[in-house]
Design brief:
single chain; mainly beta; three-stranded antiparallel beta sheet
Length: about 70
């Protein structure tokens, strides 16, 4: 099972008075690999940028997670 917890937030620089915000809600995630391991990149799904200058920015919605063997 995959569990995604926490509150997404913008991290980085928004220049001057640019109107940019985070939109949507987390709908899932895709692991970069299916092998057992730690620090595996997970792409978060369901988020986008909103606002007048959103097109001037790129959203990288990733985190890291672990895949463990079943007991």
């Amino acid at each position: 099972a995959t569990f995604i917890v926490g509150t997404p937030a913008l991290v980085g620089t928004v220049f001057g008075t640019d109107a940019v915000s985070l939109s949507g809600s987390v709908t899932g995630g895709n692991f970069a690999m299916a092998d057992v391991g730690c620090g595996i990149t997970v792409t978060i799904l369901g988020l986008s940028l909103a606002g007048a200058q959103a097109g001037d920015y790129a959203l990288t919605a990733t985190t890291t997670a672990a895949i463990t063997r079943p007991p």
